[in-house]
Amino acid sequence: MSNAVVRKTLISLAVAGVATLAQAEVVIGVAGPHTGAYAAFGEQLWKGAEKAAADINAAGGVNGEMIKLVKADDACEPKQAVSVANRLVDSDGALAVVGHFCSSSSIPASRIYEEAGVIMVTPASTNPTLTDQGLPNVFRVCGRDDQQGDVAASYIVDKLKAQRVAVIHDKDTYGKGLADAMKSTLNAYGVKEVMYEGLTRGEKDFNALITKIRSVDADVVYFGGLHSEAGPLVRQLREQGSKAIFISGDGIVSDEFVSVAGSPKYVDGVLMTFGAPPTSYPSGKKVIKEFRDSGYEPEGYTLYSYTATQVAVAALSNNNLDPIKGAEWLKTHSVDTVMGKKDFDDKGDLTVSDYVMYEWDAQGKYHVVD
Amino acid sequence: MDIVLQQLVNGLTLGSVYGLIAIGYTMVYGIIGMINFAHGDVYMVSAYITAIALALLTFFGIESFPIILVGTLFLTVAVTGAYGWVIERIAYRPLRSSSRLSVLISAIGMSLILQNYVQLSQGANQQGVPTLLTGALRFHVGDGFVQITYMKLLILFISILGMGILTYVIQKTKLGRMCRATQQDRKMASILGIDTDKVISTVFVIGAVMAALAGVLVTLDYGAFDFYVGFIIGIKAFTAAVLGGIGSLPGAMLGGLILGLSEALFAGLISSDYKDVFSFSLLVLILIVRPSGLLGKPEVEKV
Predict the structure, then answer these.
(1) HEC profile for chain A?
(2) In Å, how far is A172's CA from the nearest CA of chain B?
(3) Where are the domains of chain A?
(4) pLDDT, tens digit, 9 for 90 and up, residues A129-175
(5) Residue of B125, B151, B227, B275 to mutate, interface with A, max A Cβ within 10 Å
(6) Are B49 and B75 in contact (CB under 8 A)?
(7) pLDDT (tens digit, 9 = 90+) per residue, B139-154?
(8) Options 3.40.640.10, 3.40.50.2300, 3.30.230.10, 3.30.70.100; CATH of A2-142+280-342
(9) Which residue ranges traverse the bilayer (chain A) (predicted)?
């Protein structure tokens, strides 16, 4: 009996010790696919958050305390996302999390952060369900797939005037969600897709699917998914002699899309929806210059991650490091970031969506379509 | 009509790749009765070696496609074969006399080691190699056309050649006789003076070499790979081996072709969402009718 009491006291002493140590710094988790097939996006997230933390610490930190970033690798797998989320809130003592990347990881992880009262700001998860769950602590600094799908569908109907649209997805939360959102807007415009099918993530041979796309004589192929499948898909599409216009979403916004496709000539003319160029905001000039001076091009979600870190820090610093109050505060206050002023609605979505259409060129670069 | 023919072409090339990899599963099973779960990852390693070999050859200024192809094939086959030998030596031979279960776990461990070793040494990113051979043969059928790219022709040609040479080696040469003898009765074979350990090593090398052929061809064709690419294709090739009758060499080739064709035809004519469901249902059906696979021999319990 007395033995147990001693042990308990020891444990509580140890816990108290950890807590005092942790108070000297503000722990922020950076969760995403730091390894695995989607590690390119994990790197974007980490680079952005790392830079933001360094800048904030150089300017005096959060209410005088330094930010300590903790890397949490979910490899874009829901199961692993839950376990790293638990680790972040339990043993790392994170007050806020920047992440995750894949919607299929963000959704299960968000519930753990909610229970622990931790702010979650995702730079990249665009699936509507994430904020539609009604959790008070979840925010995103990117758009939603229903907005993204709208932009793609109206582009297909108004600009391309295409009637024969094949819709392909990767059966994952993000990919299928995006494809479905695009499809429902497309149908609302009165265009019925000629084909709607899923492919298997991790496979490389899509020839059978492409022969089928050829057989339905599609003008436009819309793909909801990530670059690792989009690359082989567009390459095999061209190899089979199809000239259909290939459109996808923000899941392919990485230079790796070109190397996975095999050559810039295959990505030439590929269209994608993505937020207005994150590098175009005047408030981000200094950060972008510093990134480029250090030899790193802040592509894709890098600046989104920087922004997410700024949002989380603003919420904490204005509320005495209380994440629960911070989350309430964010819904009524706007935050100045490297990507301009950000306002959140009651669900945690941005009040303004800024999706635009980009086109890849024969040099393997993307730029906004006028 | 042209679509069905095109799907047959797609299925044949996919199936011959499955067949090449399935050989590694089936021969190892035939000779020591274990399922080498690390085999898919040997294929993945060969994809990386292909990229390294390509980079080396271009570094030395070689630009003609036939020389690059032969050079890459030679380098990749040699290095992957060495991997096969080393894996058998360190992960399976020490467990030769223990139960089948321990070897199986050792194989799963080996698979994880290979994946993580490649991930750490080569980075976790998606990798790509540039396209080297473009162009296609086109045949007009009715209103449409059926096409087969030169790369796909090469895949078919090299897989048929590889399987042909292997069949000759197993059926006609001294090495093949030793393999078959070891497969029938390892103890008796060793009493008759066959170095069975060496034969088993050779079988692992042969399996790795076949996987390397597939690795080179697929990498040159699709251009994209990562450290996880061996998993799905390994599972498919294993299915092909079981479908054809595990332990039977022609069975592996037949199983590969059936799997490739059924996937392509189902995805192309019905739905690509459920193509894997269809392939595995087919496997279940065949195993219900013929429990030892299409060409497999039922195991006789020796008393």
Answers:
(1) CHHHHHHHHHHHHHHHHHHHHHHCEEEEEEEECCCCCCHHHHHHHHHHHHHHHHHHHHCCCECCEEEEEEEEECCCCHHHHHHHHHHHHHCCCCCEEECCCCHHHHHHHHHHHHHHCCEEEECCCCCCHHHHCCCCCEEECCCCHHHHHHHHHHHHHHHCCCCCEEEEECCCHHHHHHHHHHHHHHHHCCCCCCEEEECCCCCCCCHHHHHHHHHCCCCEEEEECCHHHHHHHHHHHHHCCCCCEEEECHHHCCCHHHHHHCCHHHHCCCEEEEECCHHHCHHHHHHHHHHHHCCCCCCCCHHHHHHHHHHHHHHHHCCCCCHHHHHHHHCCCCEEECCEEECECCCCCECCCCEEEEEECCCCCEEECC
(2) 12
(3) 2-142+280-342, 146-276+355-368
(4) 999 999 999 999 999 999 999 999 999 999 999 999 999 999 998 99
(5) B125
(6) yes
(7) 888 777 888 999 999 9
(8) 3.40.50.2300
(9) none
The interface predicted TM-score (ipTM) is 0.85
Q: Measured between alpha carbons, how far is B122 from B102 in angstroms, rounded to an integer?
A: 30
CA distance linking residue B115 with residue A155, whole number of Å: 42
Q: Which residues of A29-39 are buried (b: 16+ CB within 10 A; e: fewer)?
A: bbbbbbbbbbb
Dihedral sign, Cα of residue B255, residue B261, residue B264, residue B265: negative
User: Comparing C-alpha atoms, which of A297, A305, A342 is closest to residue A101?
Assistant: A305
User: For residues B83 and B285, what is the distance between their CA atoms, to the nearest angstrom?
Assistant: 36
Residue with tokens 């799905």, as numbered in its chain: B232
pTM for this predicted structure: 0.84
pLDDT tens for A333-356 read 999 999 999 999 999 999 988 899
Neighbours of A280 (CB within 10 A): 13
For residue A170, the SS3 value is: coil
The answer to whether B130 contacts A235, with C-beta atoms less than 8 Å apart, is no
Do residue A262 and residue B128 have CB atoms under 8 angstroms apart?
Answer: yes
CA distance A83 to A193: 39
Can you tell me the distance from the alpha carbon of A130 to that of A109, in angstroms, rounded to the nearest whole number?
10
Q: Which class would CATH give A146-276+355-368? A: alpha beta
Packing angle, helices B39-59 and B65-87, rounded to 10? 140
Tell whether A364 is within 8 A of chain B (Cβ): no
Q: Is A215 on the interface with B (CB under 8 A)?
A: yes
Domain residue spans of chain B: 2-241
Token pair of A341 as six digits: 């002023």
The amino acid at B206: I
Tokens of A120: 């979650």
